[in-house]
Design a protein that fits this description.
- Helices cover 50% and strands 12% of the residues.
- It is of the alpha+beta class.
- It has two domains: 2-79, Roll (Nuclear Transport Factor 2, Chain: A), CATH 3.10.450; 127-173, no CATH class.
- The protein has a four-stranded antiparallel beta sheet.
- Strand 3 and strand 4 (56-61) form a beta hairpin.
- It starts with a helix and ends with a helix.
Length: 173
Amino acid sequence: MQIAEKNNVQPGYGIAFPDGETGVYTIFLDPADVYPNRPLPWAQQTLHIDQYSGKVLAKFGWNDYGALGKLISLGIAFHQGEFGFISQLFMLALTIGIIMIVVSGVIMWWKRKPKGKLGAPALPENFKMLKGVAVIVIVLGLFFPLVGASLLIVWVLDYFVIKRIPIAKQWIG
């Protein structure tokens, strides 16, 4: 506790005890736990302390984060609603945006779908972006493996099942 005070760790911190002979004491301050009504991401602090000598081995805080670390920390704070009403408005705007994307997607599909079929609209004749879209889909499928796996399953079903069943091919397109 004296080491925490010497290193200006704000009151309300937690202490994790060493795990085994090579473990360290960890003093950490999570602003959401300490200031539930007004947590500030830049108040985060972490100290790692040698269990034998009491020497501070590492000290991390907001100023030690890089730009990406700060951005991620702010994103988490917004996601968890730590900015109060501003966070709520931001999340409401995101939710409305997602709903609008879904609704507009269904409307666009409905307007372009083939008559009497459930399937996808035909590609425009001068569709030059197909290769670029395919590259983007493959890259995103690699970065987001579950999305990539689901796209692969749909492609396999389409290629090996739907195209082989005449009624399904005619109705789905």
